[in-house]
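Q&A FORM
Asked by: J.P.
Topic: structure of tRNA (guanine(9)-N(1))-methyltransferase

PROVIDED:
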Amino acid sequence: RCCALPYVFKMDTTPESYLDLFPLDAIVYLTPDSENVLEDIDPDKVYVLGGLVDESIHKQLTLRRAREQSLRTARLPIREYMVKAPNSRNYHSETLAINQVFDVLSTYYETRSWPAALRAGVSSGKGYVLPDTAEQ
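REPLIED BY: S.T.
REPLY: Here is the structure written out as C-alpha cells.
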C-alpha cells in the first residue's frame, strides 16, 4: 500500500515550535473535540495533528491547547460521513492515532473523497463505519 501513493512526504524535525515557524493564521490544529469540521485541505495551511491523547484521561486536552495558543481548530468529518456501528461494548470514538489521521489526510489529498479517506484511516474498532458497510 505504501508504494501505491505517488507522493513523497518529507519530514524535518526541529527543536523550534510550529508557533515560531508558521504564522498563526496559517495553522489549523486538528483535534477530535473541535466544533469545526475539516471540509477540505488548503495547501496554504499548516495542519497540526493534535497528538496521541488517551481519550478517557485527557478529554479535550488538544482543544484546550489550541485555544490557549489562539489557533484555528478542525476535526475530521467522521460524524458527517460515517455511522455508529452496533457493537457489544457500545463503543464509538472519533479519537484516532497520529498515523490514522495521516492516512485519512493523505488519502483525502490524493482522492478528494472523504469516504475513501475515512475508509483508509478509521478502523472498524473505533465503532464507526461508512453507511454502505453498516449492515455487514
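FOLLOW-UP: The longest helix spans residues 98-111.
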